[in-house]
Predict the 3D structure of the following.
Amino acid sequence: MLSFIDSLGPLGVVGFILIQTAQVVAAPIPGEVTGLLGGFIYGPLLGVIFSTIGLTLGSYIAFSLSRTFGRPFVDRFVSKSVMSRFDYLLHHKGAFLVFLLFLIPGFPKDYLCYILGLGHLTTMEFLVIGSLGRLFGTILLTLGGDYIRTSQYGKFFILVGVAVVVIFTAMAYRDRLERIFRRWHIYSKRTRKRNNGKPR
């Protein structure tokens, strides 16, 4: 990927953004690799900016494809097991809940873009939530790539250690978190029904 981007010359930035976009839409490359690549080539600030642009564009494309072509199209990209895990999102418009899903490591964020396209979030709500939710992970990966570029291996391994702890903690409590989110959805739904049924 580094050789490919270098071969593009001044258009290398465009090439990198398109790679980030593609890994969200079709997932040909792990997002962790492209995140590190951004920091390695462009440093911490520009790396985060360019990665965020690519990730946001890819998320928008996946969300829009889902919204345009519907469930049969999404079923080609998202497995039944993932759909069943997050089916409650199709009936929920809790922006903060969706933000938490994007924020927590270990959740399939690229698949969420397709699933949320079938739900009730507006395009603008989705873009704001998705961009902010991905930002923490993007910063960590970009810093890691920058540390490799500048041979700061001590900081890199400390960063990896922190990331591993956070990811394994999130994975250990993933099922519990998902149950909490489902209950939150059910409670919010019942609350809305009660409020809508009250006389005005």
